[in-house]
């Protein structure tokens, strides 16, 4: 994908996540903590240490982990999400801290964290090359051997996804503004970019990352639309 188009899509994502209705929605979920599927995945965390919550939103996972005794730093591209998370941390007396970041440049020294969590976030990074850069950057700030816990949506197969996109007028209108989209790139609500994965394409992309080895990929439920992934920093 051409660099200016990737930058445009990333900027669109930032604006999208800054919208008040997005912040309000995620604020309403913050006290629910991890879903049952996420609870399963969090079992792969070390018993203690420093955890990076990538795409933290307003802190739903970060607060849960801080309550369990982890030293948690949440990062997000959205200023509105981070501001809300900080206000909630103060209200709750939580030790979790939050920073707004650029999506592909984390402001931490190499090996700063003992584990990472990235829930439904890397699908918002445009292009396969961009997602590899994202994984490389997250890997850089994890210590060797650290786990990265990743949650991703999948679609059953590429043909069904292509058929759905072909009949989606909002997607077609948004996609027409870009020349270098890849298969299974889509747009939600005529704006927000999301890359769909099939189970095979998700595993293939993750296997190509030099920063990580795949330790486990499981379904949330038999035939479910989520994949729970444990990657291990090489």
TrEMBL record:
Record's keyword annotation contains Transferase: yes
InterPro entries reported in the protein's UniProt record: Methyltransf_25, SAM-dependent_MTases_sf
GO biological process: methylation
Keyword field contains Transferase: yes
Superkingdom of origin organism: Bacteria
UniProt cross-references to Pfam families, sorted A to Z: Methyltransf_25
Residue ranges constituting the Methyltransferase domain according to the UniProt record: 51-145
GO molecular function, one term: methyltransferase activity
Keywords: Methyltransferase, Transferase
Protein name: SAM-dependent methyltransferase
